[in-house]
Specification:
By secondary structure, the protein is of the alpha/beta class. It is built from 7 helices and 8 strands.
Length: 204
């Protein structure tokens, strides 16, 4: 079972997860690149008032706040910026801003740095650290072990859907330790490092 704050969440719908404070940013980001940042943040969750009129100024105000919160510091970007004109890392930032709008407590990032350059990856890490600093939890799913090592406080290695290892940051000296462990799963025969890690938990 998958537990969040001690409660099983396996099989939950997207709506139920969102109501429970869980948001997911998928690998493809699910953004409308021809639309503005503000329209992407509020797409499907528009702020409306009397007679269903859009609260345009309120949406712009909220979009500006979210952009500041996750670290869009450049004045080049405004809520009216077209998403298609942003870089890959900046688009990921828009997707993260959309995720935290409803005060989500847990953000699941699915391969957020896939196909990004080192520069764009650094932008994503900046956004992630800003969100983490606000007290939210982040589940970072990735296959690039060096990226995972750079950003995570705790590591979970899965093998064919099962937990093979859990370890805190203090228990893993380098990304190579995690890589060695994953290679050991694929090719058993002796693992230098994590087998002897004090608090790391290896599961059969």
């Amino acid at each position: 079972d998958i537990l969040v704050r001690g409660k099983p969440v396996t099989g939950w719908s997207a709506a139920r997860s969102r109501d429970a404070g869980i948001e997911t940013v998928f690998q493809d980001r699910a953004l409308a690149v021809q639309q503005t940042i503000v329209r992407n943040i509020f797409m499907g969750r528009e702020l409306t008032g009397f007679m269903g009129w859009l609260k345009v100024n309120k949406e712009i105000e909220e979009a500006s706040r979210l952009m500041r919160e996750i670290g869009f510091t450049s004045k080049v970007f405004t809520p009216h910026s077209i998403v298609g004109q942003l870089s890959g890392g900046e688009r990921q930032g828009v997707a993260i801003a959309r995720a935290i709008y409803k005060q989500a407590e847990l953000i699941i990032l699915d391969e957020p740095t896939t196909a990004l350059s080192l520069r764009e990856t650094a932008k994503v890490f900046h956004f992630v650290r800003q969100v983490r600093a606000s007290g939210r939890s982040i589940l970072f799913i990735g296959h690039n072990i060096h990226h995972v090592f750079d950003i995570a406080d705790r590591f979970v290695v899965l093998d064919r859907g099962k937990v093979a290892l859990t370890a805190d940051r203090s228990e893993v000296k380098s990304a190579d330790d995690l890589i060695n462990f994953m290679e050991e799963i694929a090719h058993p025969g002796g693992l230098p490092g994590l087998h002897e890690a004090g608090g790391a938990e290896q599961r059969a």
